[in-house]
């Protein structure tokens, strides 16, 4: 059976590139000419649903990805787009039926810390308003309080 791009990134210790859409992991979103975060998150969550990878492995690797981010405009974009499209896949597809990121203490802590440092900038404010509009039930919104 062919391996998914997420499995490939995992085996080659390239998940930072995967989540950022760098190098061979760039997937063109034809409408906007940017990296397609939605498809990458969908692939990872589908791998969980199909039993190809364990939930804990995805959560651990995503947590490490967030912990490695800097407070640059580029890294903020990677963070907010991954979070937004994670929520979109979770709430708008049948790919996975459990919120795996926001039910793990280490992931929540890393996400909350990065969010608090970057939520007030233009990019953070814009993406958090999109999340409030599109996913008012999302647990990440409680981190703003």
Shape: globular
- Supply the number of helical segments: 7
Strand content: under 5%
Low-confidence stretches: none
Q: Over the alpha carbons, how many angstroms does the gyration radius reach?
A: 14 Å
The average pLDDT is: 94
Class of secondary structure makeup: mainly alpha
Count the E strands: 2
Describe the structure.
The protein is mostly helical and 145 residues long. Helices cover 59% and strands 3% of the residues. The chain has seven helices and two strands, in the order ααββααααα. It has helices at 5-11, 15-20, 37-49, 55-67, 73-92, 105-118, 122-134, and strands at residues 28-29, 34-35. The chain has a two-stranded antiparallel ribbon with strand order 1-2. β1 and β2 form a beta hairpin. α3 crosses α5 and α5 (73-92) packs parallel to α7. The mean pLDDT is 94.
Which terms summarize this structure?
145 residues, two-stranded antiparallel ribbon, mainly alpha, 7 helices, globular
How are the secondary structure elements laid out?
Layout: H1 5-11, H2 15-20, E1 28-29, E2 34-35, H3 37-49, H4 55-67, H5 73-92, H6 105-118, H7 122-134
Helix pairs in contact: 3-5, 4-6, 5-7
Short structural summary:
The chain is an all-alpha fold. The chain has helices spanning 5-11, 15-20, 37-49, 55-67, 73-92, 105-118, 122-134, and strands at residues 28-29, 34-35.
């Amino acid at each position: 059976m062919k391996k998914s791009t997420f499995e490939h990134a995992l085996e080659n210790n390239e998940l930072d590139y995967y989540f950022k859409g760098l190098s061979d992991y760039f997937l063109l979103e034809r409408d906007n000419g940017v990296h397609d975060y939605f498809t990458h998150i969908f692939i990872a969550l589908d791998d969980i649903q199909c039993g190809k990878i364990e939930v804990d492995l995805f959560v651990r690797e995503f947590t490490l990805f967030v912990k490695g981010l800097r407070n640059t405009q580029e890294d903020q974009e990677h963070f907010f787009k991954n979070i937004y499209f994670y929520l979109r896949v979770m709430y708008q597809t049948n790919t996975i039926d459990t919120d795996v990121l926001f039910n793990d203490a280490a992931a929540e802590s890393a996400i909350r810390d990065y969010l608090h440092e970057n939520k007030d900038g233009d990019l953070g404010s814009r993406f958090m308003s999109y999340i409030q509009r599109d996913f008012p039930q999302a647990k990440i919104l409680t981190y703003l309080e």
